[in-house]
């Protein structure tokens, strides 16, 4: 686990930042513990263009999926208890019989986090979650693959998040995964920049920047995104001229 300067923390120091929180599974009703980060033990540094938060010393997104090791139900923390009776039945029928119990390490690295998010995504598909929730999980997976510098998988999950958020924007009520309309539009544009959909991103950012409802933080991110597009386009023109 490292910060911007690659300073290493010992496992003992990391464990001091964590605690065991008790959950009751809404599917099988078993109680279990999951690792969580203690309040104030990880400091916000900055965010990427797609609002990926950079924290030190721990990455909160690594600990955001809650997994019941009895029945295999998994979800991001703010969706964990949001289940209908029929969804519970779907999980017990289609997830639980195939689930192999696993003891996770006390400290979640990128690979552990990816495994847990993929289980949460599988649960989303089985319980037929809204597309916005699935897109949100795909975005988190893209962020973690970015940490691993795995560009292929990062791009793949960014594309899935982009398609999902676009669909959610027109089919779901706000807020969507905690995002209001302005934030979700910005997110779509920002992901578009990362996957190369520059024209669509420019169009969205152009409409957003004139809205009076924008927060200063979001307006600053839009300005940064527009500047990034400009740099990308200038570099493309330069490369074409050189060739």
Task: Describe the fold and architecture.
The chain has 243 residues and is mostly helical. The chain folds into 2 domains: 9-129, no CATH class; 161-243. The protein has 8 helices and 6 strands; from the N terminus they run αββββββααααααα. The strands form 3 sheets. The protein has a two-stranded antiparallel sheet. Strands 3-4 form a two-stranded antiparallel sheet. Strands 5-6 form a two-stranded antiparallel sheet. Helix 6 runs antiparallel to helix 7 (198-208), helix 6 (181-195) packs parallel to helix 8 (216-242) and helix 7 packs antiparallel against helix 8 (216-242). It starts with 10 loop residues before the first helix and ends with a helix.
**DSSP helix fraction:** 40-55%
- Give the biggest sheet: 2 strands, antiparallel
What's the helix count? 8
Alpha-carbon Rg, integer: 20 Å
Number of strands: 6
Shape designation = globular
Q: State the order of secondary-structure elements, H for helix, E for strand.
A: HEEEEEEHHHHHHH
Derived structural class: mainly alpha
Low-pLDDT windows of residues: 1-6
Query: How many domains make up the coordinates?
Result: 2
Distance between the termini: 42 Å
